[in-house]
């Protein structure tokens, strides 16, 4: 076929075969090749074919990590290995080391799998899954090491209609475990697949002895749906969760996911109303109308309390055990994430100081760290005390590390990088911001990711990087935030990007996909973007636009214009 299509040719002048490698790669394998391979397999002894069928169900490479659970007796194991060795002699498999086998080509693996009927595939997968469950001790390191293989086999069997309904609750629990393990290693796509399978096996919400598992499946399914930006599916899971949860506390995980989704899609007002309501239910009232003088007094009183504590007292001191109090801290810090981009300094400081005071009274936890960092921002904002600010900012990072809160480390590192601007050169943290962006993606922290991305763009503009490089980096981050539906980050980033383009003498193309990110084709300049922000009362983005206009005017030596925008920025 390759010769016929002139992809593979014999060169008389070079006296050798020549080919176009890209054309070879793009050439599809004809069905007749599969038929030939299937015919070759059918000519092998039945026991060899059976061994190859098992191998084709397991993956590209298999060693005794799995097979020792499938063939537990010395006789059956030796027989299986002998069959695989014979397949090696037939150039179907290749062997590496003492016990690892893999097909020499994917087409051979596909052929070994294709010779089975749909029913036989299901039965083979189920046989493998059940043997792995039966022969690996549950809740041990060895069981955890093969959890994905177990669940993949059970789920594959189920897709072919082979299962055992009496064990569906057990299978659902295994999917829940595999999903949570996937989240731990930042594989959110696989986690969603496992959650879908688990919910399907559950066959509707279950009360009684399976209530806790139902609760965990639906709240975890909602979370990974959000992390995969499938908001419609997230809402479906949350609706069932809220309808069936027995008490307020059982809904809190769902509320957290719902509010994070709102914050991502610019529904800050609705998110804030939900948070205030949840805090009241938790016994913590909070007013969103804060007088700056009251906020200043709160910063002073909090600073006085912290003066009685050393850094070691915080890192090694009392831990918060009250679950309701931990939830209170979590939702108070969420309020701060609404106040920060809206430039509501007084409200932010009041919420942050509340987190710190509750931590001093009830013990410290991972959310206390964020409260300390936001308090340190308030110390700078009201007192310009840089040393106090940086002291507690870095203490917060030490706290989450001492707690082993790995998921929180990138989040707290973001604030360390941002607040470092007040002490270190602007360019000092650009690489750390970029590295931390990757870490935030890895742990699925879509709440703080936009803030880190905004500062990556801003630093690219301000720190003296090559503007062409800065433009490409900013454009890439813009597209990423759009793909992740982090709409709250886009306006400030677009302002940065437009400023960079203006500096390099490039016009913003209204047909460029970046321009359609806001869904508004009328925006063709920084002036129009600023007007868009003002007309929609977007305080934080409006300040960002003023800041970028200020810098452009200053760099162009238009000092009167720069002073004008500086005044607007500080209003």
Overview of the molecule:
This protein has helices spanning 21-26, 31-42, 46-58, 64-70, 74-89, 106-114, 118-135, 141-145, 147-159, 168-184, 188-202, 211-227, 231-244, 252-264, 268-281, 292-307, 311-316, 323-339, 345-362, 366-383, 386-403, 409-419, 430-443, 449-462, 467-483, 490-503, 526-535, 539-555, 559-570; strands at residues 8-11, 16-19, 61-62, 93-96, 100-103. The termini are far apart. Helices cover 68% and strands 3% of the residues. The radius of gyration is 30 Å and the shape is globular.
Q: Which structural traits does this protein have?
A:
571 residues; three-stranded antiparallel β-sheet; 5 strands
Give the arrangement of secondary structure elements:
Blueprint lengths: L7 E4 L4 E4 L1 H6 L4 H12 L3 H13 L2 E2 L1 H7 L3 H16 L3 E4 L3 E4 L2 H9 L3 H18 L5 H5 L1 H13 L8 H17 L3 H15 L8 H17 L3 H14 L7 H13 L3 H14 L10 H16 L3 H6 L6 H17 L5 H18 L3 H18 L2 H18 L5 H11 L10 H14 L5 H14 L4 H17 L6 H14 L22 H10 L3 H17 L3 H12 L1
Antiparallel strand pairs: 1-2, 3-5, 4-5
Helix pairs in contact: 2-6, 3-5, 3-6, 3-7, 7-9, 9-10, 10-11, 10-12, 11-12, 12-13, 12-14, 13-14, 14-15, 14-18, 15-18, 16-19, 16-20, 18-19, 18-20, 19-20, 20-21, 20-22, 21-22, 22-23, 23-24, 24-25, 24-26, 25-26, 26-28, 27-28, 28-29
